[in-house]
Design goal:
CATH superfamily of the largest domain: ABC transporter type 1, transmembrane domain
Strand order of the largest sheet: 6-7-8-3-9-10
Largest sheet: 6 strands, mixed
Structural class: alpha/beta
CATH topology of the largest domain: ABC transporter transmembrane region fold
Number of domains: 2
Distance between the termini: 62 Å
CATH class of the largest domain: Mainly Alpha
CATH architecture of the largest domain: Up-down Bundle
Radius of gyration: 35 Å
Number of strands: 10
Helix content: 55-70%
Strand content: 5-15%
């Protein structure tokens, strides 16, 4: 890929982002003004020093103090506008990126872990603002250097020529440092990420470790992990120490050059002590600007690498949401020779043909890997079939608006039934209307969770905790059932909603589900016979296909798996 194409792609991250141009321009202007006044302070220092050898000039002193105060104020303002620019760009990039992530197709979440996506929208999203900061640094460096060398040459041409040595020396030091920083940064990031991932996994698996008598083996692996972390940390420290040493040696050498040559010029009367001091201050300012700039240049490759990661997300097509509204009628849903495979895997749904009858309770059963959950995902259009077609009332569902289609469904799942926030927010989650306290209370009563909610100090405003940790599994399921009730969708998807519950909790949840399913077309994934006691129709799946389908009475006579399933009661 050519450089122009790379830049176009990477900066494509900013397409659609409203940049704070006023703040950006203020950052440029104030930063330049700040450095200009700092140079002026250095120049005025010469007059103060030289004047102090005879008599202090009050006007010069006042002028110096005034300019120094202005310089300090501009420095604060420069830091403010630069930080304001960075955080504003960060905010807008994160907002755009998060919105994009929310609209990515489901397969993207299969390919990218949650931790990686969080990293993209937090630390990685700061890359664009870093480039703008580098741009400010570049312009300030150029303008400051030009102003500085004009002033230096006004003092003494020969000394100014010698001072030019700071440019190649600074360039060499900072380019080398920048490359090493990038390589060690990548090494440190990879090492830290893999180490933390290993440690987190082992902590979660401590029961398996103990039951397998693997403590010693894991202690050895942990020691190796910590050694890698030590190496990464030590190399980072060594790099900082090396840079500090190089900078110190550079400063010492530069001081020797300036003051040896400048000292001779002072003795010959070609330069005053004040001019020499001012000369040194100005060269120090230029040197600092150059070092900052070249260090930024050294990290550009890393910044572009980060922006590439963001660009990959932004370049991914969002879920298409065009199409016709779904007719306001209930109809059968039919799978017609549908096949589907996840990326890089074999088909998990194979030539599946089955009809889900309208107004009935349909239970989908089968062993692990039979394709039950995938069938639900296809129903919700989280994925599209590889071949075949899903029809609603005889028409392919692909013709309908995605948002409109999903709005016809309510889902209750055993996995993560609650999301961080209050009980009120959880029950009303996804609704685009206000829910009154009376409606909320009535829905909670129907879902068998009113008592457990009102028993909490905050009632409906109680925080459910991370992952619903402030409520039991059964209580969380009842709250999620209340959410489905409030949604009042025509079709219900129940994904093993009563699994992993004790007997008492399962009874409470089952009662709530009975209320929920009234007058609804229900499709449920069931793990035992008790969950299917109200089913009108049974679909038995095996290896991604329909092994049998029919009423419970029919399958009792014809299907061995269903007869075994009934015995789980």
């Amino acid at each position: 890929m050519k450089l122009k194409e790379k830049i176009h792609r990477y900066f494509g991250v900013l397409r659609g982002v409203k940049l704070p141009w006023l703040i950006i321009l203020c950052s440029f202007a104030v930063s330049i003004a700040s450095m200009s006044t700092e140079l002026q302070v250095a120049t005025l220092t010469a007059g103060i020093i030289d004047a102090s050898q005879s008599a202090i000039n009050a006007s010069e002193l006042v002028n110096y103090i005034s300019v120094a105060a202005i310089s300090a104020a501009l420095s604060i303002a420069s830091n403010y506008f630069t930080r304001r620019m960075e955080e504003t760009i960060n905010l807008r990039v994160r907002t755009k990126l998060w919105t994009k992530i929310m609209h990515l197709p489901s397969f993207y979440y299969d390919e990218d872990s949650g931790d990686q996506l969080v990293s993209r929208v937090t630390s990685d999203a700061e890359a664009p603002s870093s480039l703008f900061s580098m741009a400010v640094s570049f312009v300030v460096c150029i303008v400051t250097s030009m102003q500085a060398f004009v002033q230096l040459y006004s003092y003494n041409t020969m000394l100014a020529n010698y001072s030019l040595i700071i440019i190649p020396l600074t360039l060499i030091i900072c380019v080398v440092y920048g490359k090493l920083t990038f390589r060690l940064g990548v090494f440190g990031t990879v090492t830290t990420a893999s180490s933390l991932g290993y440690l987190a996994e082992r902590v979660r698996s401590f029961r398996l470790i103990k039951s397998s008598l693997a403590e010693k083996a894991e202690a050895v692996r942990g020691n190796k992990t910590f050694k890698r972390m030590y190496l990464a940390d030590f190399l980072s420290w060594l790099l900082v120490a090396g840079y500090s040493l190089a900078s110190s040696l550079f400063s010492i050498m530069f001081i020797v050059i300036i003051f040896v040559i400048g000292g001779r010029l002072v003795t010959t009367g070609e330069l005053t002590i004040g001019d020499l001091t001012s000369f040194y201050m100005i060269t120090g300012i230029v040197s600092l600007q150059l070092m900052q700039f070249f260090m930024n240049v050294g990290s550009v490759s890393g910044t572009f690498g980060t922006m590439k990661k963001i660009a990959q997300i932004m370049d991914t097509d969002s879920e298409p949401d065009g199409g016709e509204p779904v007719p306001e009628v209930c109809a059968d849903i039919e799978f017609d020779n549908v096949s589907f495979a996840y990326a890089g895997r074999q088909d998990v749904i194979k030539n599946l043909s089955v009809k889900i009858p309208m107004g009935k309770v349909t239970a989908v059963i089968g062993g692990n890997g039979a394709g039950k959950s995938t069938l639900f995902k296809l129903l919700l259009r989280l994925y599209e079939p590889k071949s075949g077609e899903i029809r609603f009332g005889g028409d392919g569902i692909g013709k309908y608006s995605l948002t409109d289609w999903r709005d016809r469904f309510a889902v209750v799942s055993q996995r993560n039934p609650l999301i961080g926030g209050t009980v009120r927010e959880n029950i009303a989650y996804g609704l685009d209307r206000e829910v009154s306290d009376e409606e909320l209370a009535e829905t909670a009563r129907r879902a068998n969770c009113y008592d457990c909610i009102t028993a909490k100090p905050g009632g409906f405003d109680e925080d459910v905790g991370l992952g619903g940790s402030n409520f039991s599994g059964g209580q969380g399921q009842c709250i999620s059932i209340a959410r489905a009730m409030l949604r009042n969708a025509d079709y219900l998807l129940l994904d093993e909603a009563t699994s992993n519950l004790d007997v008492v909790s399962e009874a409470e949840v089952t009662g709530a589900m009975d209320e929920l399913m009234r007058d609804k077309t229900t499709i449920m994934i069931a793990h035992n016979y008790a969950a299917t006691r109200n089913a009108d129709y049974i679909i038995v799946m095996k290896d991604g296909a329909v092994e049998a389908a029919g009423t419970p009475d029919e399958l009792l006579k014809t299907n061995e798996y269903y007869r075994m399933f009934v015995k789980t009661l």
